Amino acid sequence: MKTSNFIAGSVVGGIVYFLLGWLFYGILFTDLYPQGGSMLFIFLGCLSFAALLAYVFTKWAHISTMMSGAKGGAAIGLFYALAMNFFMYASQEPNYQNIAIDVVITIVSGAITGAAIGMVIGMMNKKEK
Fold it and tell me: What single DSSP character describes residue 9?
């Protein structure tokens, strides 16, 4: 694994994922979750998800294009979203109605973030040659 690819992919992906969260949850679907929360911890969560994608892309999957990154990000986003939403549903069952919408948002966000990470890894690979 190239550490520089992992770090750059994580940082760019974390920023992209954070901005997508702001767009989807802060502007388009404001009624899904309560407003507020610590922006620091929200960003750290975004950075953690992006680091997961960057790690898988660089260590195991050798993803280095936008298209393969989008596919990988969508697939990982699907399973991540299902897991988290099932946990949230289990703990908030009578009040939690957001599973389908949140899964779709996470798949789309994962695909876009994965595409950005794949692009960054690909660009860094070309630069190193």
Answer: H
Helix or strand or coil: residue 12? Answer: helix
Cβ(109)–Cβ(24) below 8 Å: yes
48, HSE (Cβ side, Cα atoms, 13 Å): 7
**CA distances for 15 relative to 20, 96, 100, 106, angstroms:** 9, 28, 25, 15
What residue has token string 């404001």?
30
Q: What is the pLDDT of residues 58-89, one digit of tens each?
A: 999 999 999 999 999 999 999 999 999 999 88
Which has the closest alpha carbon to 99: 108, 88, 109, 110?
Answer: 88
Question: Which residue matches tokens 């260590």?
Answer: 59
Give the tokens for residue 5: 């690819």
* pTM (two decimals): 0.94
Residue 40 has pLDDT above 80, yes or no: yes
Cβ-based neighbours of 93, under 8 Å, separated by 6 or more? none
What is the spatial distance between Cα 42 and Cα 84, in angstroms, rounded to a whole number?
15
How many whole angstroms separate alpha carbon 103 and alpha carbon 119? 24
DSSP 93: T
